[in-house]
Write a structure and sequence with these properties.
alpha+beta; Immunoglobulin-like; eight-stranded antiparallel beta sheet; 24% strand
Length: 432
């Protein structure tokens, strides 16, 4: 009896071990596939070095520190003012961070200044970017803390400020074009239409540093048609993209075209199996050696599309656009969300995809402000508002992300979810 029991137990253990081994093998394959989706260059790339500022020459005044915010360990482009949310991309728990604004040269990113000005190397206007701020020991770089003080190892040496560049913080066009991020979250491209029947496409890494276009392939599509029988979109007019002689950019000869010009760039990076789609809407001829203009985006008036208005905004204008005061009345909050929804629709229709994040993230903050007012609603409406807020917050982040990708179909899909959530809020609060 005992032998049979022991034999049965051994058999079950073997089955369990076999199941575990299969599960581990499957997990290993999944992990391998996840890494396989990254471009090879991502493994070879090193992030720009951090900048250390001594206690005697700090970059910021340590008596007035930036507020604590929250970010995702895997997606540092996520920046939240609340600690009660998770990463909208991977659902990981957010961690504390401090960020500080700095100004750098559009091309020479080794320059960091405390305020606006011109690049001392090429005279171009400085652009704003955010840096991660922490403190470390001069002789023990493994120490990382969010507050100044003394080194915890010797308790004598003052900590120094460590400013680290963050990925995806500089989406400023370098050649006066339109700047998008690729879905792999690493590559970036800039499309420029200088006229004379020519389109140029520049390629960058996730720190907006230029990379070779040698391993990048694609084409410019001028016309597409939907085939009802095949249930797919077919290209009618397309031109190949070829690397320039010095491999610094791709170009396509498309013949003289009138403005505004809508084109689709379909690009494959580093031998990827799938193509990425980028929808460009050019309203003027770009100048490849030009810096962004100083014009500002006005959402209150009629929208006049520019090549990339958000990149041209001054830092104070960006802060003002993203800042939103939460009204004390929930119906007023919903009305302001409806206004942002209208702004998003205008931007989408105008092809100004990189500006969509402004009203989308404003609406997100407004929607989160409804939380303290839901106790005054009937229970059934509380459920509607809770679900609508969750849907709006996630779709706002998707609009921000897809706007950076420049993929019109994905933006339209996210906007459909966003607009549905807005309509549910309108119904719950009886807003016409």
């Amino acid at each position: 009896m005992s032998e049979q029991t022991h034999g049965s137990f051994s058999h079950e253990t073997g089955t369990l071990e076999s199941w575990r081994n299969r599960r581990l093998r499957v997990l290993g394959v999944v992990v391998a596939l996840c890494f396989a989706t990254l471009p090879i260059s991502a493994f070879l790339q090193q992030s720009p070095p951090a900048i250390l500022r001594s206690a005697s020459e700090p970059f910021i005044d340590e008596t007035t520190l930036p507020n604590i915010a929250w970010t995702c360990p895997m997606h540092p482009e996520v920046h939240e003012l609340h600690d009660d949310t998770s990463c909208p991309i991977c659902n990981m728990r957010l961690v504390e961070t401090r960020r500080v604004a700095a100004w750098t040269c559009p091309v020479h990113s080794v320059i960091f200044e405390r305020g606006e000005g011109v690049c001392p190397i090429d005279g171009e206007r400085l652009v704003r970017m955010n840096l991660s701020l922490a403190w470390t020991c001069p002789e023990h770089p493994e120490i990382d803390t969010l507050n100044p003080g003394l080194c915890p190892i010797d308790r004598v040496t003052r900590l120094v400020q460590r400013l680290s560049p963050l990925p995806h913080e500089d989406h400023t066009p370098k050649h006066g074009g339109i700047f998008f991020m690729a879905p792999d979250n690493w590559h970036h491209i800039e499309g420029v239409y200088p006229g004379a029947g020519r389109i140029a496409v520049y390629v960058y890494d996730n720190y907006s540093q230029p990379i070779s276009a040698e391993a990048v392939h694609g084409r410019i599509v001028l016309e597409e048609q939907y085939d009802v029988e095949a249930n797919e979109v077919r290209e009618v007019v397309a031109y190949p993209l070829a690397a320039s002689s010095d491999e610094t950019y791709l170009e396509a000869q498309i013949g003289n075209q009138e403005l505004p010009l809508e084109v689709v760039a379909k690009v494959r990076f580093d031998g990827d199996a799938t193509e990425d789609r980028f929808d460009f809407v050019f309203t003027s001829h770009g100048q490849e050696n030009a810096s962004p203009s100083g014009s500002e985006l006005d959402l209150a008036g009629p929208l006049q599309p520019t090549s990339d208005s958000s990149a041209a905004l001054s830092p104070s204008s960006i802060d003002a656009l993203l800042a939103v005061a939460i009204p004390g009345d929930p119906k007023t909050i919903v009305r302001e969300i409806v206004d942002r929804n209208s702004d998003i629709r205008k931007l989408l229709e105008a092809g100004m995809f990189t500006e969509i994040y402004i009203p989308a993230l404003q609406a997100k903050e407004l929607a989160l402000g409804l939380g303290s007012h839901m106790v005054n609603l009937a229970s059934d409406r509380q459920v509607v508002v809770t679900l609508a807020v969750k849907s709006l917050v996630r779709s706002a982040w998707l609009l921000d992300w897809y706007g950076d990708l420049g993929n019109r179909p994905l933006i339209q899909e996210a906007y459909s979810i966003f607009e549905t959530a807005v309509n549910h809020l309108r119904a719950a609060y009886e807003i016409q």
